[in-house]
Amino acid sequence: MTAQILDNAVLWMGDGTSLAGHLAIESGKIVSVCPGRYHGCLRVEDLGGQALSPGLIDLMVLGGFNRSILRDDPGELAQAYLRLGITSCQFCIGTLSWDSMQRVAGNVRRAMIDQDRPAARVLGLYLEGPFQQPDLTGASLREYALSPSLEHVSRVLEMGPVITMINVAPGLEGDAAAVRRLGESGKVVSMAHSDAPVERVDACIDAGASVLGHCWDNNSGRIGDSGVQQPTLEHAALLDERVRFIHLICDGTHVHPVMVRLTVRCRGVQSVCLVTDAVTRAGCPDGCYTSDDGRVFSKQGGVGRTDTGWLCGSALLLPDHLRSFIRFTGLPPEQAIRTVTGNPAASLGLQDRVGLLRAGLAADVVAWDSSLRIRRVWCSGREVEDVSDFAEVHL
User: How many structural domains is the chain composed of?
Assistant: First the structure.
């Protein structure tokens, strides 16, 4: 591939820093990032002062565009997501039967190695289930919630390297032992869907859990015998820096803006990963849709809801979550951008491959206009056609 220069841009580096300058791309990689204008003889794209960031990374995709990770080709979803500036994604499933989990894992595995179509890089599969407390599964099916026994953990590990992240709810029998074994097997372990006492949370952190899954959702607190509020999973994890990354669904409904600001005040932007928890109806107008198990849900105001009004995932896309996060926190975009680029890459140990504007990393790049809408996208150095930022949220 011929070297090219993306010039006259404000570079949001993905680590919270920025500079006015240009970057050079060759053979799908970033080869240099430099301040100031380019004055050489290579082919130049003048960005006219637009901002350039690393490609976005969504760690929690269950569907979108009327497609479901369970019933549809993950590769087609990855194609649709690339047009949004999401150049890498991790698919996600909740509580399912073993047969369904294994089928999805096989489909995601094939999508990871499919290089024949322009699509977001598929990083792997996040098992948010089955290791959830049965009464805290949210809209997932509680009958498929399981304890993280030696047998169940072994069956999960048999799915192989396609499984990149696994949730273990503190408080389940065998929780800490499961966290330790999964970590020793190279899996990133998150904690969510739990009302465990702080001692059980601490035991899981001691065992190696490093991610707080979708903070402030489905982790109910306990009231002590004297009527005193007891610490929740969030309280324990936010105070322990061994929990390096905090997932936030930032659609304005799953997490109140005050809680978003509290999280940032407590741990700083360097620990936050915005995740969409995107469901089938994401990227579509409000309306009803049928889930894979036959239940009827609806998209209402950017979130998925059951027929009783219970939340069942977000229906906004990652650029909208970022715009909401900026509005809620008041952070400048060059700092906030790391929540959808450098931070999620680091949470999976991929900071040497993606997530930053840095020489040697994949040339996954997004151009933003002054209203913080995505206008152009490059994936591995190739510009993506038909870029579309739906922008249901505006600054």
Answer: 2
